[in-house]
Design goal:
The complex is a heterodimer. Chain A is of the alpha+beta class. Chain A folds into 4 domains: about 90 residues, no CATH class; about 160 residues, GAF domain (Beta-Lactamase, 2-Layer Sandwich); about 90 residues, no CATH class; about 160 residues, Heat Shock Protein 90 (2-Layer Sandwich). Chain A contains 19 helices and 13 strands. In chain A, the strands form 3 sheets. Chain A has a 6-stranded antiparallel sheet. In chain A, strands 8-10-11-13-12 form a 5-stranded mixed sheet. The C terminus of chain A is likely disordered. Chain B is α/β, with parallel strands linked by helices. Chain B has a single domain, classed as Response regulator (Rossmann fold), CATH 3.40.50. Chain B has a 5-stranded parallel sheet with strand order 2-1-3-4-5, with helices on both faces. Classes of the chains: A alpha+beta, B alpha/beta. At the A-B interface, α13, α14 and α19 of A face α1 and α4 of B.
Chain lengths: ~550, ~120
Amino acid sequence: MNNGQIWQCVLLDDKRRSFGLPLYQTGEEYLLSALESRIREKCITCEELRNDFLDLSKENGSVFEVLPIVLNELMNINQKLESYGRSFEIKEEMFDTLVCLSTSLKLVLDVDKISYKGLVAFTSGSSFGFNRAFALLADKRKLIGHFAIGPRDRKEALRIWKGISYKKMSMSELLEFSPRVFNKEKDKFREILQKMEFRINEEPFKKVFKAETSLRISDQDVMPGVLRDYYEGIPFWIIPLFSHLRRPLGAILLDNFLTRKELTHKEVKALDIFAMEISLALERGLTYEELEEKVETLEEANVKLKEHQELITKLRAEASIGDMVLQLTHSFKNPVIAIAGLARILKKRAQTDLTMSRYIDPIFDEAVKLEKTLKNFVDFTKTRYWMDKSQLDINKVIELLYQEKKTKGKQQNINFHLKLSENLPPILGNEYQLYTCVENIVNNSLEAMPKGGELVIETNTQNGSISLEINDTGPGISEEVMEYLFTPFFTTKTIGSGLGLYTSKEIIENMGGTISVSCVRNKGCKVTIYLPYFDSKENHEQNISRG
Amino acid sequence: MNRILVVDDEPNIRFIYKEVLNEEGFEVAEAESVNETFDILNRENIDLVVLDIKLRSESGLDILQRITREFPNIPVVLCSAYVSYQNDYTSWLADSYIVKSSNPYELVREVKGVLQKKGRIE
């Protein structure tokens, strides 16, 4: 290239104009008549100008040698600026996305919606623009696949991306929860989501939760077969989600299976900032869910409590009915005995007198019938309503209960073992109440073994007391629960008044006994009751006072 | 002839007991209160007391305790309308216990049994 041409190119004489200019595009004709703009916008970055400068410096030396260096540096700076500009744009978009996400999550309590918004933020737009994302939620010590979003393959990816750019949706529009999209995406990934069930302390999750930061996982890392098979050697990122007390709430899995884009160190840090937003929302959502459940349980307990109160009122009323009935039958008894007794004497004395017998026999028969009816009535009233104590054989109470529960136990695959010590001394109590008490405990054991087990009920004598032990092979009770075991209205069941064990304790203590519970985690529970022997000398007065 | 004291607040019950005991050759004295009971016990020779647990406003139990204290040699047969007390009393102060029924001859059997045991049958 000679000197004449270059200067002609820059200066744009008519001759040059006729064979066209490098770097010019349609619509830039205005540059033809604007020398300064032309040099700034085009010539400065033009390779040809640089070469011309080099040629000039070779021919003329001195000051011209500087020109190519200046020009070169100028181009470098220009390139840097451009890349900063791009990076700034990405950061700006990331920031916008973060603001949108934060605003969008502010009032959301639904865990589905939170997962949806979080994954959309990671996969849409050009800030992160991950190809695919999975949300796993913590349940006890496990991470369970909850939701996923993104294309399954290249074909679908093209369709989705076209769709979004065509619709030109803004980030805040994208973040709006769509149940239709949610269900569609969830359905699409159902199979793999169901397979995703990992222990929090298994790799690679263990190291992610320990590092408390997002980590890139490649096929060099230890990971469960499910993940290895799914990602097929493509690297992916795990973002841990934490509560404010550092309790794992879940994790997000991100990958670029199509674009194979890698992340810079700064971008990984940015992931953590997004994760914090999502974690906060998730914690709020989970706490709300928990609260709702508790409220529901409380409401149920409230209903049960009301029922229980009604039952108590009813029992009290029945108890006073019982008293009344007993008094009434008592006042009937003496006259009946007198009539029947006299009739018997008369019958005996008129044995030979047939005429008399014709009248006496029916009187006698009717009186005896009346006496029997009275007796049955008293017996019924006593067992049903009377809360007073009598001597009891605890084995009989247990056998009665066993007859009642054995069918239910069988259905549940539970084996009953009754080890009842023979010739136990009697105890003093109300049979109905004692039955209720043991029934409460046995019911708890049965409920603790929904998939079957062994239930051992054992009676014995020990240091002047009768011991009753109920052993199950259920999961036992946590220390936390143990502390409140006998507190009224405390329950771990969804349906339960929390009065069962409390009532049992009241009954046992009312009988002068003690009740205790001991457990071995995952081995079972043992309820031990001690009841004092019945001592006739000590107790006769309180019994006879009704006489 | 053995003399039996029947303590009961129901005149008809006393009448029945008196009838059946007389039939069997016992002499019968009757009382319907604590005072009457001890008047008779102090005045007469009584071989056995038939005592109802429930007297109108007084407790047969108090009478039982007083008898065992003041007349420890006189046996007592307790009567009650209900079975439930039986267990509490068999080993207690009374020598025997019966539940009142339409068959007054049960009482006669019990009375005879206790007297025989005590060697007081005449």
